[in-house]
Amino acid sequence: MNIKEKIARNVERYLQDEEVVNLGIGIPTIAANYIKEDKNIYLHSENGILGVDSIATADNADPNIVNAGKIPVSVQKGVSYFNSADSFAMIRGGHVDVAVIGALQVDKNGLVANWNIPGKNVLGVGGAMDLLEGVKKVIIATTHTTKDGKSKLVEELEYPLTSLRPADLIITDLGVFEVEEGQLFLIEILPEATLEEIKDKTDANFKVKIKETVND
């Protein structure tokens, strides 16, 4: 299991029964593969699906049934299909409980930059702004550092802000941070990580409030 899969598996622990959950592009979409059968969770995709299941395998993929990242997915019994305008109306109207999205950076207050790196060609913000503003809970799922080892948890954002609404939870490959009253609290240290490593790889100021130990 690679780092991205480990993050996605840990995301599942924070999803509750009967929630409507939007999984963003990248690591968040992988979380669909780890939803436990005893959890009745309704996965929402902003391109117009409510009832997404796991990522499709080669033998059951339908190129017409894809998630927001254009990856073929399987669907649950009773799935609903609708147009993109209705999908965003659900988000903006407060009908999505949780959004799991990626991030380029998260600052010390939990504010998120996840759509643009100045000087680089990107596709655009997509639904990130709407999700941050419209859902009840936002979970960030991201690697703790960039490919060249720079912290993604920073004192101040270097990239354009996505929304003035902060995230509620940040899940990386090293730990889990909770955002409370504009401050980061480390609440879990993940297997094979240490507090010293997290401090060394985190530029943002945070406080330690360990709630539990996660077993791999």
Automatic annotation (TrEMBL):
Keywords: Transferase
Keyword Methyltransferase listed: no
Superkingdom of the source species: Bacteria
Example GO molecular function: CoA-transferase activity
Pfam families (alphabetical): CoA_trans
Family under the similarity heading: Belongs to the 3-oxoacid CoA-transferase subunit B family.
Name by which UniProt lists this protein: 3-oxoacid CoA-transferase
Organism: Ornithinibacillus halophilus
Record lineage: Bacteria, Bacillati, Bacillota, Bacilli, Bacillales
